[in-house]
């Protein structure tokens, strides 16, 4: 029996109807990427992007707000907008001292972008929207290198155009949209180089690897997947191809070497900022796998329903989540098992092995430490982008095979399934378009609800500490609070002397990692009474002075 005759091969060229459909979907995708850029409130991570744009460091903010006493909330504006006296070098200094786990490429570009197009929320986010358009040629190129099929490339573009994952990251002022582009381009560059080994192609691969590393440190896991793939294709024998690959990778690492030194020098800061990912442990380790499976379907269908984040939601199986998570998890298992079954029968093993390694290697490297040592690294949705990209491309290939099947009934069924994937994405995009916040904006419902509540009062005073968690939250609130609200920010381990003339005083303390935080100091004091706000999702305590008889 000739297995090649039984093996599906993707249609090499795309028919006119598919091109017209994809162009139409690209137009819709562009609209959803750029529409309402400033509608959603900024969230915790974006507040620090704007802080980087301002050129101030976290230490400077912590010290300066302490020295001012009672200040208007507008005094925090300078930490969220460009300071003419501070340039790109100050943005890099912020990253070195305050955020060393984030390499500088995106942040230097966004600083320059803000200078040209404005530093408003919409202006800064527009860079991510513009970068997201590069996903289309990038995924098309990778599909050509993998499958030698333009039709699969067009299908992949269609899925990317309306994917809720792609739309959200296109409106998020962080580096993850750029990271997806670098993953795709670096992977395509490697496959092209293996197909045509020239000095120029190896140099391009080394350069794209360096760009990926300067975008996100987890590109190292993508490089690991590339290395395993190259070694397997050479049957784990040291030959000219292996040597060339190692040399190109070494060049990429040497280009990245300056930031490696920065990271090592400030590794204590990086560990402190990411300690919650290893410190927080789930009671049931199998919840990690369940969370990962439940999140996979969100790359195709996501209506902001029943979101789960370990640091926010304490129980994965609580009533509000269980039905959606079970359904999403089962759907993910079926999808992945069918893809693996389909790849098992595929004619060419190079693309199946490459996609499996690209998706599984980073994911497993994040999951294993969580299962063995504890932690929630693998539940961070953004860290799993290599897996999600691999699945989107795999689904594009499966659809690209079946919608051009020689069997008419099979062709119609899979064309309907493709329409289902696209409609699921479009429904998700409409929900995202209308939403004020999204589940990926971790915990953002709390500052939004807090701001709505405190804005009801006349001339209130908001008291908080200068802990880094509180600084991030206060920078968010700066965008949401009315101008008549004042702030009093004090040392984390000290209880402040509150002004007597203020009627409405609220305590805001989001530092739950320290048992001796500001909230604990107030509870120990017999001078004031604390009453927790009964408004849902608020993090406010109303402070009242106890009247002595």
Question: Could you characterize what this model shows?
Answer:
With 549 residues, this protein is mainly α. The chain is built from 23 helices and six strands. Helix 22 links the parallel strand 2 (461-465) and strand 3.
Characteristic key phrases:
mainly alpha; disordered N terminus; globular; 6-stranded mixed beta sheet; 549 residues
Note the topology.
Elements: H1 3-6, H2 16-34, H3 44-54, H4 58-68, E1 70-72, H5 88-98, H6 105-117, H7 121-132, H8 135-147, H9 150-162, H10 164-170, H11 176-195, H12 199-215, H13 219-233, H14 240-265, H15 267-279, H16 286-296, H17 319-344, H18 349-373, H19 385-402, H20 408-434, H21 445-454, E2 461-465, H22 468-480, E3 486-490, E4 505-508, H23 518-524, E5 528-532, E6 540-545
Parallel strand pairs: 2-3, 2-4
Antiparallel strand pairs: 1-3, 4-6, 5-6
Helix pairs in contact: 2-9, 3-5, 3-6, 3-22, 5-6, 7-10, 8-9, 8-11, 9-19, 11-12, 11-13, 12-14, 13-14, 13-18, 16-17, 18-19, 21-22
Short description:
This protein is mainly alpha-helical. It has helices at residues 3-6, 16-34, 44-54, 58-68, 88-98, 105-117, 121-132, 135-147, 150-162, 164-170, 176-195, 199-215, 219-233, 240-265, 267-279, 286-296, 319-344, 349-373, 385-402, 408-434, 445-454, 468-480, 518-524, and strands spanning 70-72, 461-465, 486-490, 505-508, 528-532, 540-545. The protein is built from 23 helices and 6 strands.
């Amino acid at each position: 029996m000739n297995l090649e005759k039984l093996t599906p091969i993707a249609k090499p060229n795309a028919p006119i109807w598919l091109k017209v459909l994809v162009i139409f979907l690209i137009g819709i995708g562009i609209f959803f990427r750029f529409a309402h850029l400033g509608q959603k409130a900024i969230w915790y991570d974006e507040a620090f992007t704007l802080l980087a744009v301002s050129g101030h460091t976290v230490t400077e903010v912590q010290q300066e707000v302490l020295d001012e006493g009672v200040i208007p909330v507008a005094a925090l504006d300078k930490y969220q907008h460009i300071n003419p006296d501070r340039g790109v070098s100050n943005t890099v200094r912020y990253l070195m001292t305050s955020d060393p786990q984030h390499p500088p490429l995106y942040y230097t570009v966004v600083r320059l972008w803000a200078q040209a197009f404005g530093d408003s929320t919409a202006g800064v986010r527009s860079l991510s929207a513009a970068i997201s358009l590069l996903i289309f040629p990038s995924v098309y190129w990778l599909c050509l290198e993998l499958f030698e099929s333009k039709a699969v490339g067009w299908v992949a573009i269609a899925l990317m155009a309306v994917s809720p994952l792609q739309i959200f990251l296109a409106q998020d002022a962080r580096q993850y949209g750029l990271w997806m582009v670098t993953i795709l381009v670096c992977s395509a560059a490697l496959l092209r180089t293996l197909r045509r080994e020239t000095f120029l192609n190896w140099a391009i691969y080394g350069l794209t690897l360096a760009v990926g590393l300067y975008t996100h440190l987890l590109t190292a896991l993508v490089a690991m997947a590339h290395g395993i793939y190259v070694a397997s294709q050479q049957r784990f024998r040291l030959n000219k191809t292996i040597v060339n690959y190692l040399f190109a990778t070494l060049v990429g690492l040497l280009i990245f070497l300056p930031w490696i030194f920065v990271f090592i020098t400030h590794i204590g800061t990086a560990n402190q900022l990411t300690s919650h990912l290893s410190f927080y442990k789930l009671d049931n380790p199998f919840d990690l796998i369940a969370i990962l499976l439940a999140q996979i379907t969100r790359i195709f269908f996501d209506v902001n329903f029943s979101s789960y984040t370990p640091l926010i939601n304490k129980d994965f199986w609580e009533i509000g989540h269980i039905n959606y998570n079970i359904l999403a998890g089962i759907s993910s298992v079926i999808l992945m098992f069918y893809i693996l079954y389909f790849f098992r029968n595929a004619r060419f093993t190079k693309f199946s092995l490459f996609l499996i390694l690209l998706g599984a290697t980073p994911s497993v490297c994040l999951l294993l430490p969580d299962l063995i040592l504890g932690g929630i690294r693998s539940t961070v949705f953004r860290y799993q982008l290599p897996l999600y990209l691999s699945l989107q491309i795999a689904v594009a290939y499966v659809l690209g095979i079946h919608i051009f099947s020689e069997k008419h009934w099979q062709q119609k069924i899979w064309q309907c399934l493709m329409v289902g994937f696209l409609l699921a994405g479009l429904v998700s995009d409409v929900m995202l378009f209308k939403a004020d916040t999204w589940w990926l904006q971790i915990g953002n419902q709390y500052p939004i609800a807090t701001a709505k509540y405190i804005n009801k009062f006349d001339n209130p005073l908001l008291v908080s500490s200068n802990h880094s968690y509180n600084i991030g939250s206060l920078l968010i609130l700066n965008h949401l609070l009315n101008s008549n609200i004042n702030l009093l920010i004090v040392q984390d381990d000290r209880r402040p002397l509150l002004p007597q003339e203020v009627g409405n005083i609220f305590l805001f303390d989001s530092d739950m990692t320290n048992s001796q935080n500001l909230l604990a100091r107030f509870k120990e004091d017999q001078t004031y009474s604390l009453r927790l706000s009964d408004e849902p999702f608020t993090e406010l305590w109303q402070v009242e002075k106890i009247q002595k008889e």
